[in-house]
């Protein structure tokens, strides 16, 4: 148990060819900066963290690589200063957007004529503005379905309904297969002569008898 707790609390560097373990997150952050980033050539700003989705695509500046490394280290240096709020973010821009939830600031005004709606971030405004022009770029990929949506979250919600329908069809199909197996197990005459009333009302019980 002690080994499990120690593993959960440790911070492992997963840079290629490095598996150094640190007790504190700050130590991992300093290690990444001093050993893996600062010691590289000035024009090499590439993340070599194992499994990184950038797939060795380089950055054009050192500071951008350092900010990116917070995705892997979990570092969140940008903390909310409102009393009682413990939120923290890896990027300053995300902190600014969050702060608007406290201040009520909504600097992104809808650009559609006559609409007075405003939003705290540009992505919410873009989602809203698509409702004015009826643009629905997110199409359902289920064959035969022509539904389209203005945002990906609505599409995901819709596709969950397809998943529920698929499960229901599987249950119905399973029931039909059970009946078909009963018909193949014995002839109609055998069913009449050898099936008890309880078995006639319980196909599963009859299948157990046939097997």
UniProtKB/TrEMBL annotation:
SUPFAM superfamilies noted in UniProt: beta-beta-alpha zinc fingers
Chain residue ranges for the region called Disordered: 151-171, 192-211
Cited Gene3D superfamilies: Classic Zinc Finger (3.30.160.60)
Sequence ranges assigned to domain C2H2-type in this UniProt record: 11-41, 50-77, 78-107, 108-137, 138-167
Keyword field: Metal-binding, Nucleus, Repeat, Zinc, Zinc-finger
Localization annotation: Nucleus
Classification via Pfam families: zf-C2H2 (PF00096), zf-C2H2_15 (PF23561)
GO CC annotations, alphabetized: nucleus
InterPro entries listed in its UniProt record: GLI-like, Znf-C2H2_ZIC1-5/GLI1-3-like, Znf_C2H2_sf, Znf_C2H2_type
Keyword Nuclease: no
MF terms in GO: DNA-binding transcription factor activity, RNA polymerase II-specific; RNA polymerase II cis-regulatory region sequence-specific DNA binding; zinc ion binding
Name under which the protein is recorded: C2H2-type domain-containing protein
Source species: Capitella teleta (Polychaete worm)
